[in-house]
Amino acid sequence: MTHRTATREEWLTARLDLLEAEKELTRQSDKLAQRRQALPWVRIDKQYRSETDGGSAALPDLFHGRSQLLVYHFMFGPDYTAGCPSCSAIADGFNGIVVHLANHDVAFTAVSQAPLAKLRAYKQRMGWSFPWTSSLGGEFNFDFSVSLTEEQQREGAQYNYRREAAWAQSGIGDSLTKRGEGPVAQIAAMTGTDVARYTRERPGVSAFALEDGIVYHTYSTYSRGLDGLWGMFQWLDRAPKGRNETGIWWRRHDEYNT
């Protein structure tokens, strides 16, 4: 990228013009947040159970006495040898927020398909302390469109509120991986899996409310809807060269040669 230089006065004029656009984006973001909160609630009657550090837990137990629950659907499948590096980059920001959410009536947990022992070991490696639950053997991940069966993957599954094309090569739809080549294959290798197994797990965030003992699903977002949770990208978007990306440059935080 090339950039022109300017006087401080010229810079200030351009900056004030940008400030108006930033303020408009902030106002629009506030309106979107209100629309999220205005979505209707959907009662959950299915009895989901998961494995936590405190033992087997039902979905209401994950609220820990609070009225709201935020779930990060972390890509860590049963066959993975390590968590998804992209989800790991997002999760690096979780430790600091959990206590603040808890003191604002919001519980938080990550949920993955991997066995709890794998999650515990990876959590220790990464130095994380946030709650992390294993949904292995249950339907939670499948019902919230973040895990696929092999059959669903072959036929074309629902993700991010649209149906994907059926897989044509490497076990995943062309719409995601351009026939299994490029960045997705690279990230799959970083989890110790192939493209097919890696992409049977998907990232997402889901929100729930607990009222009079009944759990309600209130919101879910996937794919680019998670952009705001990538703390590093929010900083890079304010750096002189922005994201300045060529392929998959990020690693797990203990894998950089610094």
Q: Biggest sheet: strands, sense, closure?
A: 6 strands, mixed
For the CA atoms, what is the radius of gyration?
20 Å
Helix content: 25-40%
Unreliably modeled segments: 169-181
Number of strands: 12
Mean pLDDT: 92
Distance between the termini: 26 Å
- The geometry reads as globular
Beta-strand proportion: 15-25%
Query: How many alpha or pi helices?
Result: 10
SSE string, helices as H and strands as E: HEEEEHHEHEHHEEEEHHHEEH
Secondary-structure class: alpha+beta
Largest sheet: spatial strand order: 1-12-11-4-5-6
Strand and helix map with partners:
Layout: H1 8-37, E1 42-44, E2 49-52, E3 55-58, E4 68-73, H2 85-91, H3 94-102, E5 106-112, H4 116-126, E6 132-134, H5 140-143, H6 150-155, E7 158-159, E8 162-163, E9 167-169, E10 172-173, H7 174-177, H8 183-190, H9 195-198, E11 204-211, E12 214-222, H10 231-236
Parallel strand pairs: 4-5, 5-6
Antiparallel strand pairs: 1-12, 2-3, 4-11, 7-8, 9-10, 11-12
Word description of this protein:
The chain has 258 residues and is α+β, with helices and mostly antiparallel strands. Helix content is 34%, strand content 21%. It has helices spanning 8-37, 85-91, 94-102, 116-126, 140-143, 150-155, 174-177, 183-190, 195-198, 231-236, and strands at 42-44, 49-52, 55-58, 68-73, 106-112, 132-134, 158-159, 162-163, 167-169, 172-173, 204-211, 214-222. The strands form four sheets. Strands 1-12-11-4-5-6 form a six-stranded mixed sheet. Strands 2-3 form a two-stranded antiparallel sheet. It has a two-stranded antiparallel ribbon with strand order 7-8. Helix 4 (116-126) links the parallel strand 5 and strand 6 (132-134). The longest helix is centred in the first third of the chain and has 30 residues, at 8-37. The two termini are 26 Å apart.
